[in-house]
Specification:
The protein is mainly α. It contains twelve helices and no strands. The longest helix has 27 residues, at about 90-115.
């Protein structure tokens, strides 16, 4: 089961090149959906306007070497290790889902385009990695959905509650789960295959309405944030900490003027589960 290319098994029952064209259409759907999302929300316009405003504030010039270093740090910390997450469980769940999804997508493309029929035997490692990627998505995704979502963990809402913001994670889990179930059943063309294609079409065709496009915006936003910190503009936010005398003067409360940086756990002392 774990070394079987289910896409090749289904190929004899499908029109020639069906899966290849389907994947191409899904890629185009993501591109079109992302562009529409950018136009609707003005994301690119906001990003470049903010960039120009930052330069106009007269921050120090950043050299090419420092720019490369900032870009490298952004990729390593914000993209590859999801450094923006403070909650370690949320971070692990996100990394499982992200790397699982990437592995799952890449191996799907390899099997569909490189080994499309039973006549071209697939190396065992490719479907094995496909299974590992899919299982990683399920582990991270279901963990997040049932135990980590803030409206479930902190607000007491039902795990079955569904809103528009959930389109991405629900369609992702449905697509991968149905794909694994279809492959476990031996591949071929049937009800499971049809449901798998339906869920996958919703995943890639709903970019305009879901959070799919955020994976393209977040690295850009993280890079811009690091740039503004490096050039000193810091998006008009204070850069000093509470130990800095100038920062202490900003507090209207006398108590906070002499407060140390670490004042204990505060509201983080326990998880918010008092619903």
């Amino acid at each position: 089961m774990f070394t079987n290319n289910a896409f090749a098994a289904a190929a004899p029952s499908l029109p020639a090149g069906f899966m290849q064209w389907y994947l191409v259409l899904m890629v185009l759907a993501v591109i079109v959906g992302t562009l529409l999302d950018m136009a609707h929300k003005g994301s690119a316009t906001y990003f470049f306007n903010n960039w120009r405003k930052s330069k106009a504030k007269g921050g120090r010039q950043i050299g090419g070497g420092e720019l490369v270093a900032i870009a490298t740090e952004t990729v390593l910390v914000d993209v590859m290790t999801s450094g923006e997450f403070c909650n370690p469980r949320r971070r692990v769940a996100h990394l499982l889902t992200m790397y699982g999804f990437v592995t799952y997508l890449v191996t799907t493309a390899i099997m569909v385009f490189g080994y499309p029929t039973p006549a071209t035997p697939t190396p065992d490692i490719v479907p094995q990695l496909w299974w590992i990627g899919g299982l990683m998505v399920c582990a991270g995704g279901y963990w997040f959905w049932f135990f980590i979502r803030v409206d479930v963990a902190a607000e007491g809402h039902s795990p079955l509650r569904f809103v528009q913001a959930d389109i991405f994670i629900v369609s992702l889990l449905a697509s991968v789960t149905l794909g694994l179930a279809w492959a476990a059943a031996g591949g071929g063309v049937g009800v499971l295959f049809g449901l798998y294609l339906l869920a996958t079409t919703v995943l890639f065709g709903s970019v305009f309405w879901s959070k799919f496009a955020h994976m393209f915006f977040k690295p850009a936003a993280a890079f811009e944030k690091r740039i503004t910190r490096a050039d000193g503009t810091a998006e008009n936010l204070p850069t000093q900490n509470r130990d800095d005398p100038e920062q202490q003067k900003r507090h209207s409360m006398e108590l906070l003027r002499d407060a140390p940086m670490d004042m204990g756990l505060g509201i983080k002392r326990e998880a918010p589960r008092h619903y």
